[in-house]
C-alpha cells in the first residue's frame, strides 16, 4: 500500500488542464520569487527588537505584579504590553513605544514587504527625543533599533531600594492608553 492512493486518477483528471495549471503555477511562483527576493532586513530587525523587548517584558511583569507562574498564562505580546503600568513606573515611560513596536511587527506579519514610515512610530520617536536627546534617525528602522535598548533598560527590575527610588522618581509619569494607538 502506498502513502497516497489514487494519485494516478487525479493526474489523469487534471491532464486536460495541465497547461493552464502550469501557467497559474508560474504566475504564483513569480510572485513568490519577487517576495523572497525583497529586502527582508527590516523584518528581521523589527522581529529581533520585538523578541528582545518581549524577553524583558517576561522578566518585568512577574516581578512587578508578583506572578508566581507567569509563563503559564501564555499571554500574547500585546496582552503583556497592555499590562505595563501607565503611571508610577519607569515602564510607563516606554509603554507607548512598546505598544507601537508590536503594531509595526504585526504589520509585517500580514504584509511581508511592508514599508514603515516615520509617522507610524511617533510614540517611539517621542521617547527617543528624551532618551536619545538630539539624535536624528535616518530611517524608522534606525529609530526602532535605538528604542529597543531604551525599552529594555526601562523594563529592568532593579534591587528593592532602587525600585523604590524609581517609583518615587516616576510617580508623575503617565502613559497614553492603548486606544490612543488604535
Instruction: For the record, give the distance between the C-alpha atoms at the N and C termini, rounded to a whole number.
Output: 55 Å
As a percent range, the share of strand residues is under 5%
In terms of structural class, how would the helical and strand content be classed?
mainly alpha
Helix content: 55-70%
Based on CA atoms alone, the radius of gyration comes out at 23 Å
Major pleated sheet = none
Along the chain, the helix and strand elements come as HHHHHHHH
Basic shape: elongated
Count of discrete alpha- or pi-helical segments spanning 4 or more residues: 8
Count the beta strands: 0
Uncertain stretches of 5 or more adjacent residues: none
In round numbers, the mean pLDDT is 88
